[in-house]
Amino acid sequence: MRTVLTFVPLLVLTSCVKIPPNFHKCNRKSPDFKSCVLESAKKGVRELVRPYPELTLPRMDPFEISEVTIGGSDGPVNFQQKFTKCKFYGLVDLDLDDFEFNFEKKVVKMSGVFPEVRMMCDYEVKGKILVLQIDGIGNGTVILKNLKIMDVLPFEETKRMGRTFPKFKSSSITIDPELVVFDFLNHDNRALSDNVNPIFNNNWKDIFDEVKGDYANVVDRVVLNVVNSFFSKVSFEEAFDSA
Ligand SMILES: *[C@@H]1O[C@H](CO)[C@@H](O)[C@H](O)[C@H]1NC(C)=O
């Protein structure tokens, strides 16, 4: 299975920057550090509706990915999907219920729910689903309802100019939607989309299970990109009080 992902090019700046003024700092020595970080992260996610070029953070609503290719498998969903010009809506509505910075174990853990994520792309597919040959190009929307996520992000610390910058090594996200709704429009053959959409929607669980790992990989890379962009500019000393 192959997953290719291309981001819309981001602006890259190398100088150190101040964190945004509305970013809420928490004190590492305070007894309510944990709940403070959760509140701060909750608010921080909502602030991503606009881009922060100084932190190399793109706008997250919509969040744009120029290309995602997901390879075929040997299961009942045997097709290659190439999505281009993807726009994701609803990512800033993430309702975090846990966000923990563990400095000793050098790991961040988070979990939460996206009420609704909407992904709109142009697509090119080649292959079969069940018995139906579904080659074609078109555009489509995938809606993920009440998408539960859980993520573990181990990091290493690097020192620069006397400050500590975490570098997140990996992201292991699990994604678990309550419902997935597919709406594809085939440009060449409208009748085909009329036939395929009900099949997709009646079998959404099996179909989603098949591609879930690939989608999780895409999300992992987006998450890593966001946290590493932020923490390549903002050190622990700037993000947290410790006096
Ligand atoms: C395809 O694109 C058209 C025009 O942008 C849009 O109106 C339509 O809703 C899209 N269809 C799907 C299934 O996303």
Shape, per Cα inertia axes: elongated
Give the low-confidence spans: 8-15
What is the SS-derived class? alpha+beta
- Helical proportion, percent range: 25-40%
**What order do the SSEs take from the amino end to the carboxyl end, as H and E?**
EEHEEEEEEEEEHHHE
The major beta sheet can be summarized as: 10 strands, antiparallel
> What bound compounds does this protein have?
2-acetamido-2-deoxy-beta-D-glucopyranose
Question: How many β strands by DSSP?
Answer: 12
Task: Classify the oligomer.
Answer: single chain
Counting H and I runs of at least 4 residues, what is the number of helices? 4
Mean pLDDT metric:
86
User: How many angstroms separate the termini?
Assistant: 49 Å
Signal peptide: 1-16
Protein name: Protein takeout
Family: Belongs to the TO family.
Keywords: Biological rhythms, Signal
